[in-house]
Write a structure and sequence with these properties.
Number of helices: 13
Largest sheet: 5 strands, mixed
CATH topology of the largest domain: Trna Endonuclease, Chain: A, domain 1
CATH class of the largest domain: Alpha Beta
Strand order of the largest sheet: 3-4-5-6-7
Radius of gyration: 20 Å
Helix content: 40-55%
Number of strands: 7
Number of domains: 3
Amino acid sequence: MNKKAIWIIKANGTRVPFDKYKVKTTCIRAGANRKTAKTVAERIGRKVKDGMKTSEIYKMVLEALKIEDVGKIAHHKYRLKESIMRMGPAGYSFENYVGEILRDYGHNVLFTRTIEHGKCVKHEIDLVTEIISTGEKYIIECKYHNMSGIYTGLKESLYTHARFLDLDDKYDHEMLVCNTKLSDDAITYAKCIGQQTISWRYPPNKGLESMIEEKGLYPVTILGLNRYELESLSRNNMMLIRDLVKSDLNMLSRETRISYQRLQRLQNLATQILE
């Protein structure tokens, strides 16, 4: 006799069947070995109940990873989406973060949050970049959300394209980048008009999270910092954990007033995450 499906509630209110395999694969993506991922998935599978929210399951997985993951690195990597959502309140600009990511993928960032005069009206552009190898120029709209369950939809794709049309005598391409999922309509429209999109889990295996993981472009918010530490690092323009790894800790301690010992522990953790 087949076991009755357990239905859980996503952040946007929709009900979906619980899939233990998804827990296992997300743990592996976060760096857990297969044995640990399987153990965590089995643990969650025994505890999950019908009608449970995905946010509750997320917390359960984090707690299970704390117990099962010896090095605790997977625990931190599993929090990537949450870490990005913490950037805005911590004083980090999503546009600047996107610019840092694109630099590692062949873009030269020319302007951030600039005003451009189009054929009809003025536009506030989040990012202007140029492909280093070809000289092709992009206007990029960055859409940031600090809550789960919110899709970036057709409206954002439409106004990105409208701006591009008014500026297409100056730019070669348009791009929409967001830290949440794109709606189906936004994906369909973007494909139709040739708009490049980067979002959470899209394009498949080339989404925002994949780009970050491939190059180790994790934000410092992934380190589990307190509010004072986040504010201090933000004031010192330290956004990526790789910047912390390269830092002179004596100088950084003087500038941030975070103890050398604490910074050393954070640097060691950042190094482990990047390995």
